[in-house]
Amino acid sequence: MHNFRDRTITGLSMVFLLLAALYFSPWFFAGIFLLVVVLGLWEFYSLVNNETTRPQKIYGTLAGALLYIDILCLHHMPELPLQAARVLSVFPVILFFIPFIIEIYRKHAHPLNNISITVLGLLYIAVPLALMNLFNGNAAVRFLGFPALLLAYFILIWFYDTGAYLFGKQFGKHKFFERISPKKTWEGTLAGSFVAIATALIFAFLIKEILLIDWIVLTLLVIFFGTYGDLAESLFKRSLNIKDSGNILPGHGGILDRFDTLFLSAPFVFLYFYLRNLI
To answer: How far apart are CA 193 and CA 26, in angstroms?
Structure first.
């Protein structure tokens, strides 16, 4: 009972904060996700820190923050001089190769593990969250003052996750992927998918500037890659023999537990709408 209450309070608080950020200021939104990047990377590197792997925790967290800020500046500061924009464009490449140099001086027994996990954190956490700012800053369509696609993306994730969780908890019998996520069921997944599709149809009715096919593709990307994002994070936790990635969010666990759906779906959603010239 307490877990459900904590989960509800934390979830509603996060929804309110995120909606306020989307409505009032892209910089407020960017600041929230910069904090998520830092906390998420620190949590990720702490989880995998063991006798065979010593990720470059401080460098990885700092590099993730710089990578996030770099992408943010490129797309929120179009008035940047050309030379400054060029420097910012190539700067992320440097961040991915510095771990090789750092590892030479660390004298750890498993340098390949350390480098791989450090770089993985940047790709898995910092890049997807940075892409959210491109949705926000380049929004071609707005709805009630919100960037329409980004608002819909978050709402679809929330409704899909909530529908799957509630229905699966009550009626779930057939395991979806028991080896990795024993609590996930086909009943919950299908119910969450139905809720997401119904929500997308409502958005299609309200926002005529975006075609129905785009709403359908967005929903399918959220369902497909969101599900695999959840499974990937469950796979990480199972390999580390832990239940939650952290305890910073009451009722939800850690940052990775809360944003796992987004980590894998955001890059594909961004690429689709970027190619469609809608962001």
So the answer is: 29
DSSP states along 236-266: HHHHHT-S-S-SSBTTTBSHHHHHHHHHHHH
Residue 34: how many CB atoms within 10 A of its CB?
A: 19
* Structure-token pair, residue 152: 């819909």
Domain ranges within the chain, ordered by starting residue: 2-275
Whole-model pTM above 0.70?
yes
Q: Please state, in angstroms and rounded to a whole number, the distance separating the CA atoms of residues 187 and 164.
A: 8
Number of neighbouring beta carbons within 10 Å of residue 203: 21
Angle at Cα 203 formed by Cα 201 and Cα 206, nearest 5°?
115
Please write the tens of the pLDDT for every residue from 196-228. 999 999 999 999 989 999 999 999 999 999 999
Buried b (16+ CB within 10 A) or exposed e, 52-80: ebbbbbebbbebbbbbbbbbbbbbbeeee
What CA–CA distance (Å, rounded) separates 186 from 168? 8
Burial 108-128 (b: 16+ CB within 10 A, else e): eeebebbbebbbebbebbbbb
Beta bridge partners of 125: none
The set of residues, in sequence order, having a beta carbon less than 8 Å from that of 94 and lying 6+ positions away, is none
- Under DSSP, the state recorded for 278 is -
Which of 2, 42, 27, 4 lies closest to 255, judged by CA?
42
SS3 (DSSP) at 177: strand
